Amino acid sequence: MEREQLADFLRRRREAIRPAEVGLADSPRRRTSGLRREEVAMLAGMSVDYVVRLEQGRSSQPSTQLLGALARALRLSDDERDHLFHLAGHHPPPADEVARLARAGMVRMLDLLGDTPAVVLSDLGEVLAQNRVSLLMMGDHTGHTGDRRYMVYRWFTDPAARGVHPPEEQEHQARQMVADLRAVAGRRSSDPVVTGLVARLREASAHFRRLWAEHEVAVRRANRKTLLHPRVGRLVMDCETLLTPDQGQQLLVFTPADAETRERLELLRVLGTEEFPSEVSGRLER
Predict the structure, then answer these.
(1) Which of 13, 52, 138, 220 could serve as a FRET partner for 158 with CA atoms 20 to 30 Å apart?
(2) DSSP characters for the chain?
(3) Are residues 83 and 183 both part of a single domain?
């Protein structure tokens, strides 16, 4: 681990980012060039004290999970992310783990969307990054582990994941997810991650087995859905999906479909995140 080089790199990357680039308010009274340390800590989900120790070369070796969080917070490019891992004494993530990191360009698009809810997903429906408004609308979906990382798995194995949609929409949502997974399975036919997920879903859910057997295929790029939010009620949202060229990641953008939803979403922004339910799975199931 090269502590001095790591400290210098982190400090310079922090100072090079303007607050507006990460969705934070800028002010002419700011005396700090770039982001403040507390802002990096907030974006990365770690303590300010640890960020200070990293920049002063006094920290223990950071874990790969912490480095990934720092790379996202500092909007590092792929090359910069790999350099960060090298300085910290780790090998850069292998290809399968890199695929689980939101691309820098996607994260910047999240920031630019401002008050429009948006998330970055893997092609298997794992949430890789969310902006603030999406957190208010659906809770934090980035902390799941194992098969629960995948929205399609939660949908077919956890009733709470389905309960955030009106009953009359649930079958439609289920069919969409299975058809999309079928398209991914065709594109990644030799990938054990995909084949293993399908096998475990077939074992866990009779509903999934029935839909999978129908062999419907569709990559969903636009959709309308109703979300039953516990604090502001029904949200009717139009969803647009933007795909990367290799279709490995996608940016899902939510816009209010009517005036009532627009007002409720504005109310949600005012209310903030106080006492948001910890498990509100499925709000963005496609």
Answers:
(1) 220
(2) --HHHHHHHHHHHHHH--GGGGT----TT--SSS--HHHHHHHHTS-HHHHHHHHTT-PPPPPHHHHHHHHHHTT--HHHHHHHHHHTT-PPPPHHHHTTS--HHHHHHHHHTTTS-EEEEETT-BEEEE-HHHHHHH---S---GGGGBHHHHHHH-HHHHTTS-HHHHHHHHHHHHHHHHHHHHHTTT-HHHHHHHHHHHHH-HHHHHHHHTT------EEEEEEEETTTEEEEEEEEEEE-TTSSEEEEEEEESSHHHHHHHHHHHHHTTTT--S--TTTT--
(3) no
Range of the domain at 64: 3-93
Specify whether 145 is located in the same domain as 60: no
pLDDT higher than threshold 60 for residue 280: no
Q: What is the mean pLDDT of residues 120-127?
A: 90
On whether both 184 and 232 belong to a single domain, the answer is yes
Residue after which a domain boundary falls, among 93, 114, 136: 93
Q: For the chain, how many structural domains are there in total?
A: 2
- The percentage of the chain sitting over the pLDDT mark of 70, rounded to a whole number, equals 89
Q: What is the pTM of this model?
A: 0.66
Percent of the chain with pLDDT over 90: 34
pLDDT, tens only, 69-83: 888 888 887 788 889
